[in-house]
Amino acid sequence: MSKISKPHDCLFKGSLQHKQVMLDWLVHHLPKETLALIDTDTLVMVPNEYVPQWPDTLYSDIVYSCKIGGKPGYIYIAAEHQSSDDEMMAFRILCYVVELMNNHLKQGHKKLPIVLPLVLYHGEKSPYPYSTKIWDCFENPELAKAIALKPFQLIDLTVMSDEEINQHGLASVMEMLFKHYRQRQSPLSWLEALLSKGKMTTIYTQVSPDYFKDVLRYFIEICGKANEAGTDELDKALALWVQSVPEQAQEDIMTFAQQLEKRGEERGKQQGMQQGMQQGEKKASLKIAKQLLDSHVDRTLVKVATGLSDEELDALLH
């Protein structure tokens, strides 16, 4: 007989790919309450092309899909044939579980599946020398258990009042802009709170003039447009900005104001050109339509050729 390449992997996968072997293995190793949730009739080994390819080559692994608690789920089985110096087994297994979940979503599912990880160990050291708890992968396990891997903390600006946000120091500037940029109202209604407490002066003189410019640019480009502020309102808003910052920052505001005015003039010219072109095209269409109608061309053909309405054609005949 020729020598078997990776004999442990071959026996592991060769054994557990058989459903009866897999069932017996689960029956004798899973907690009874967990086993009761698995619909063993739905156990199907997942083909390799549908299993995420781990970068880790120390493990051979098998994935079975099945119903767990009546919903799609997976049993992920990894085999470690030797005990390395890697104490991060629990973290690596967590990474694999998350990748399986992500792969499940990529297949079109809308919810995460239950994934049950099992690790078969037959290494040199006995018993298995490392923890199976994810907390023990942290520098401070007790602190991690207390604050890590908890529901994420949500900071919902949409339910906070401006007064509450304004207590958040310099961070209130970013939060105030994010809160109001969708609101269809004048920025003057909340700008005073944004500029209060000398925050802009502090940002310009102590944080960064570039950051000040970023904030100003966001206000003009995003908040001004989103709130449908007219030119007069933006002028008033910029005047409030000028009053709230030191003299060196006022130059930046005036530069932005000039750029905004120039941009408005360019938009006006473009709109005027477009209107002129549209008027010229309409005039040409009316002239062509009049000629076609005078030549007794079918009215329907004239409409199709010129794009004019019945009312516009009627006006040509009177």
Automatic annotation (TrEMBL):
Instruction: Fetch the InterPro entries from UniProt.
Output: Rpn/YhgA-like_nuclease (IPR051699), RpnA (IPR010106), Transposase_31 (IPR006842)
Query: Could you name the domain of life of the organism this protein comes from?
Result: Bacteria
Transposase (putative) YhgA-like domain sequence ranges: 6-193
Q: Where is the signal peptide?
A: none
Molecular function, one GO term: double-stranded DNA endonuclease activity
Q: Name one GO biological process term.
A: DNA recombination
Q: Which Pfam families match?
A: Transposase_31 (PF04754)
Family listed? Belongs to the Rpn/YhgA-like nuclease family.
Name of this protein: Similar to putative transposase
Which organism is the protein's source?
Candidatus Regiella insecticola
- Species classification: Bacteria, Pseudomonadati, Pseudomonadota, Gammaproteobacteria, Enterobacterales
